[in-house]
Design goal:
Length: 86
């Protein structure tokens, strides 16, 4: 079971990872929510600003931090936004 301060810690890590990924790969995402049923932290991509999709490769460090702190059963998922045609 995770507590509010654990969720806040993951939000901070996600923000730091998002800034790192923006500088390195020009992909943009942010923390969305935690689903306790499947023990997954979800990030949501912001592809409209970059035209590049977030991939799990970009989230390896974040997932490593989460698993080292809370255990191997915790994962990171990506929510993709459907872009409207221009």
């Amino acid at each position: 079971m995770l507590y509010k301060q654990d969720i806040e810690k993951v939000k901070k890590w996600t923000l730091e990872q998002a800034e790192y990924c923006w500088e390195l790969w020009r992909v943009e995402f942010s923390y969305d929510h935690y689903d306790p049923e499947v023990r997954t932290f979800y990030v949501i991509e912001h592809q409209a600003n970059t035209n590049k999709a977030v991939e799990f490769e970009h989230l390896k460090e974040l997932q490593g931090l989460i698993q080292s702190e809370f255990g191997d059963r915790y994962k990171v998922g990506i929510l993709y936004q459907k872009l409207p045609y221009e």
